[in-house]
Amino acid sequence: MANPTVRVLTLLELLQTHRHMSGRELAERLDVDRRTLRRYIQALEELGIPVTTERGRHGGYRLMPGFKLPPLMFNSDEALAVSLGLLAAQGLGIAETAPALETARAKLERVMPARLKKQAQALGESARLELPSARAPGDERLLVLFATATQARQRVRLDYRDDRNQATRRMLNPYGLVFRGGRWYVSGWCHLRRDLRSFRLDRIIEATPLEASFERPADFNPAEHLAHSIASLPRAIAVSVRLHTDLTHAVEELGRNIGVFTPDGNAVMLHARTDSLTWFARQLAHQPFDFEILDPPELCDALAQQAARLHRLAERK
After folding, report:
1. I need a labelling partner for 142 at 20 to 30 A (CA). Which of 82, 188, 242, 263 fits?
2. Which fold has domain 139-232?
3. How far apart are CA 157 and CA 205, in angstroms?
4. Which residues of the chain have pLDDT under 50?
């Protein structure tokens, strides 16, 4: 029992179990000296647990009469983490969970010590997380279904309607869920396409777990796969640009959605597709690093037009 946290919890259990214990008894049970025991008592008090100290020949420690330990206890860091989690969950677009979030917060605040309750309430009233707003209503049933199927390695049959309003039936080995850009996606192996695919949950008409099981690739990252899939969407014009920076800064400045980034010596190759060279030129124009346009030549013209526009605006009196 070398871990101090374990000893503090054991101390609390001893005080709950025994109406009164002397300092010597507690120190022996915890295998610590009296000075360390006093630090552990102080740790309980900082958590809002009232420990009464009785001095004298028959003195010792006891929990304050009438005190009942709540079913959950949080230190300040844990209370902050739970409060932030509840705030973040409000932006996930699942309407069915909105009442549950409020009742969960109320229940947690009821069992928190006064100091932590005050901190949690202050955070809930003053903090706002700038997360992407939900662009499509989430379906709690589908979210739980795919999360459960992913964990159980269970194949799912789903009816899906794509962006062209065409419906297909798919057999999917779900590998993971991602909330991105205000929408929920499930990624996995599609048996119809015989390849990895991602599906928007708001476009799934129906889903049914099947008996068949599968093995999930150990190194699969659903968020990375989805980012690559979005960046590789078929568009009219192929673009190739060499960026004179490192991979980290290239992604930070341009975002993963713009295309596929590949390290190239001391530079980074960006391969992308776009429907608008004007839009792509604007993205390049405000970059803090140099770059070379390799293809198509028309992108150079679009960039020159952006430069001329900025030059004209800068010369206005």
Report:
1. 82
2. SH3 type barrels. (2.30.30)
3. 11
4. 1
